[in-house]
Amino acid sequence: MKALLDRARSFKRRVDFESDEYRKLAVGQFPEALFITCSDSRVIPALITGARPGEIFELRNAGNIVPPHDAYGAASGEAATIEYALEVLGVQDIVVCGHSHCGAMGALKYGADLSGLPRVDAWLDYARPALEPVLGDNGGGTDVDSGTDGGGAGRDATSSSEDPALREVVQLNIRNQLAVLGDYPVARRQLDAGRLRLHGWYYEIDTGKVHELDADGGFQVHGS
Q1: What is the pTM of this model?
Q2: By the 8 A CB rule, do 190 and 181 touch?
């Protein structure tokens, strides 16, 4: 923590806040895109995209999950962020970005024991049903902190090569969350009017590769 604190304290000295770039930020924010991704500390949207301050609006949670739209108007941070991004900021692009070695998706794929993490378990229920076709028989009962080949969310910290089966789960989850997002009335109106584009990305944390969801439903790495 000391290193983080030291860098925070010296931030003003390391950045030219007298420049026009930072002065303009005080006027307001005009992001190009809403970036929905995982809370994982290894996924840094501004680093991946090279975005400058004010260029992307971020929504992060475990597993880059978009909860279903609630017709009764129940509040959630995700719904509020999506609504604000579209209605106030006027973003015209939304990226849902999943990643390799994802602990949240690994917990689902490998049947991690989440009895000690009831809120995590309940949160993953938003994604679990639509992923059932690729979860298969995971055996269940794995300790969430085990990090062994048998599964568990701890796998993300110890395995350098990703199980292709986990990649399949992560990529299907990206497609699923895009579909859920498209059911939000505020998003559907913009999509129907041709004022919104949805993008699915799969990011490899150990290689830096970004796989983009194509029209055919597959993920491809495109040239720069």
Answers
A1: 0.88
A2: no
